[in-house]
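Both lines are quoted verbatim for reference:

——
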Amino acid sequence: MHTPPAFSALLFGLSGCLVDFGARTLPVALQRLYPQRAIAPSVAAHTALLHLLEREPQAAERQALDQALSEAASEHAEATPGALSVLDELRRQNIPCAWLDELPRDASVCLATPLPTWLPTPTHTPARPWPAPDACWQALIDLQVAQLDGCVLVSGEPRLLQAGLNAGLWTIGLAACGPLCGQAPADWQALGTRERDQLRGQATLSLYGLGVHSVIDQLTELGPCLADLAMRRQKGEKP
């Protein structure tokens, strides 16, 4: 039996994937600034104030959000289960990888502090936000990846996954640790099995509804998932 072709690169979402289980940084920052307002799940950082205030935010309001995001990021800068071992294994296999995020740069860099120093920090801000494919393509350019074939995006953020699909990547959705469940680690563990299964099930259906190629709970399950994708590639399936 032939060995499945190696993957060209893996891209990861930052919040709700590699770090910040439940992607809590943005909703926590918004909740602190606007405790009376309902925060929609998976809201885009660059449009959050516009949706909340229902008007164009003022410079002072944008500045206050940036400050609140940096503070929340410092509290949520913890690697998710399996993240560090996944990155170590990819490095051992010489598979290029990088993270993507849409929070302001200071908050993103703060969130990324638990990650290995060899993992590159994005240097370009794409002209178009997710779900446009620009950020995915730019990350692959920065990694000097020669081809789209065999490139994978892993995230729990629907708009980033849509960007990956638009970019022509294989996509793996994370149901439990991303914004669709939106639970901090302790809160997730405190839920009963039935509640967890219900939240996970709803998130899984939403992710498959986007058209992603596979869905897992969190990065501890990435190894078998990549092996399955490799077999699908070997059989000639394209993303």
